[in-house]
């Protein structure tokens, strides 16, 4: 399959180059031999570069969108490599329109080929073909979780052939699979006819996992360790190798390296454009605040953002001056003495617009969990499980929770649930989707105050 995928991508690059040439120059022949050499060089660069992105590893257990994301990244890097080669050798007489068309068409062809192959292979696997047989060894709970996960999604290409448990059975729900399930005692030799062996145990039984893996030292099947982490709150989980040490990343921020840079570029570009576009509106709102009541135009409030760092968040002032001198209560903003103009600002969320300045300063992001005041953070981090994990990314003007209706005076536990889902599933496309949906759902809300 890997060899076939390589061949398909190589042919896609060549075919796309010829098609882009025919489209760009139509019937006019322009330096045809030079473009043929460019196609050959581009194909060789593709053969060398694409394996670096893991495009030709097994598709088993991998999601379609994850593969497409890697394919897009590979083609962007490929296009950049071609640009570097042309700049290095001063090859400036190639059509830039042809180069862009070449890259986009090649990406479309490779994506289409996978779009046809992926569901076809998944369908074959759901009908019992092209499956790898799996032997599960471990405690009852962990094996049961793995068993049902694989049975629910046969399109991943794995089928449980046997289960060896270290304790008392798998419960009533697995009685119909008794021919599959057996007990295992340490010291017994394990014979394996399956393609895969998955050792399923909680982290607390690391010694047992070591003994089982030792008993498999004569086995030629793939051996995988599947720790039961179901009782942990996982954020951006994966595995790492640092200084030769193998780590399980249980709860890590997704904002590292290139991902962090991409999000920052999006924030700076969009917030700059938005501030320029809404400058007249900002002046009108500032005038409205000034005329409606005495006091400053902006209201500064200490909030908590990325890594628990405090910052001063900006808003258009919507309350009378000194309203909060009597103290701060959670959910009490609805009852505070807002001005008539301030009530309008809150209902329409227009009081939040100055936070684009916070985005430019780097305090916030356009998309992210909404920030809370320091006093409430100190309280909620002891009351709500996983509350501090929302601070693994920058606070945002809008977020996944807000566009789904969890804003203002709503269930805080549900808001945290949506915030953590956003962090776990973050992508640039998700940010753009949230920004777009904010225009339809985010400006007015019955829970806003």
UniProtKB/TrEMBL annotation:
Domain Bacterial sugar transferase: 263-441
Protein's name according to its UniProt entry: Undecaprenyl-phosphate glucose phosphotransferase
Membrane topology summary: Multi-pass membrane protein
Entry keyword annotation includes Nucleotidyltransferase: no
GO terms, molecular function: undecaprenyl-phosphate glucose phosphotransferase activity
UniProt superkingdom: Bacteria
Keyword annotations from UniProtKB, A to Z: Membrane, Transferase, Transmembrane, Transmembrane helix
Entry-linked InterPro entries: Bact_transf, EPS_sugar_tfrase, Undecaprenyl-P_gluc_Ptfrase
Known EC number: 2.7.8.31
Location relative to the cell: Membrane
The UniProt record lists the keyword NAD: no
Residue ranges of the TM segments: 7-23, 35-56, 68-91, 97-121, 265-289
GO annotation, cellular component aspect: membrane
Similarity field: Belongs to the bacterial sugar transferase family.
């Amino acid at each position: 399959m890997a060899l076939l995928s390589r061949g398909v991508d190589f042919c896609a690059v060549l075919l796309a180059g010829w098609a882009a040439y025919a489209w760009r120059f139509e019937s006019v022949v322009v330096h045809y031999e030079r473009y043929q050499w460019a196609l050959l060089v581009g194909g060789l660069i593709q053969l060398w570069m694409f394996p670096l992105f893991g495009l030709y590893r097994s598709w088993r257990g991998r999601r379609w969108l994850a593969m497409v994301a890697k394919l897009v990244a590979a083609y962007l890097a490929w296009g950049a490599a071609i640009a570097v080669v042309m700049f290095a050798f001063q090859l400036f007489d190639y059509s830039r329109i042809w180069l862009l068309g070449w890259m986009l068409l090649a990406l479309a062809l490779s994506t289409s080929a996978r779009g046809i192959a992926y569901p076809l292979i998944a369908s074959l696997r759901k009908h019992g073909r092209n499956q790898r047989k799996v032997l599960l060894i471990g405690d009852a709970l962990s094996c049961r979780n793995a068993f049902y996960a694989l049975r629910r999604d046969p399109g991943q290409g794995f089928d449980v052939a046997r289960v060896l448990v270290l304790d008392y059975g798998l419960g009533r729900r697995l009685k119909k699979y008794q021919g599959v399930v057996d007990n295992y005692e340490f010291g017994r030799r394990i014979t394996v006819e399956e393609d895969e062996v998955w050792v399923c145990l909680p982290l607390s039984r690391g010694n047992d996992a070591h003994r089982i893996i030792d008993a498999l030292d004569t086995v030629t099947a793939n051996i995988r360790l599947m720790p039961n982490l179901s009782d942990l709150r996982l954020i951006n989980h994966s595995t790492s190798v640092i200084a030769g040490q193998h780590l399980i990343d249980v709860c890590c921020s997704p904002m590292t390296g290139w991902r962090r840079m991409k999000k920052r570029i999006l924030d700076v570009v969009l917030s700059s454009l938005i501030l320029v576009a809404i400058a007249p509106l900002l002046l009108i709102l500032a005038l409205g605040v000034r005329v409606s009541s005495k006091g400053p135009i902006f209201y500064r409030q200490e909030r908590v953002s990325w890594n628990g760092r405090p910052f001063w968040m900006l808003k258009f002032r919507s309350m009378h001056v000194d309203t909060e001198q009597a103290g701060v209560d959670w959910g009490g903003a609805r009852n505070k003495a807002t001005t008539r103009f301030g009530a309008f600002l809150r209902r329409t969320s227009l009081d939040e617009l100055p936070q684009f300045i916070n985005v430019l300063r780097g305090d916030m992001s356009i998309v992210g969990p909404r920030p809370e005041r320091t006093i409430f953070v100190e309280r909620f981090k002891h009351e709500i499980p996983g509350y501090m994990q929302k601070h693994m990314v920058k606070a945002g003007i809008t977020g996944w929770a807000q566009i789904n209706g969890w804003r203002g005076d709503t269930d805080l536990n549900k808001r945290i649930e949506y915030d953590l889902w956003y962090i776990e599933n973050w992508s640039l496309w998700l940010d753009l989707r949230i920004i777009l949906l904010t225009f339809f759902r985010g400006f007015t809300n019955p829970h806003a105050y």
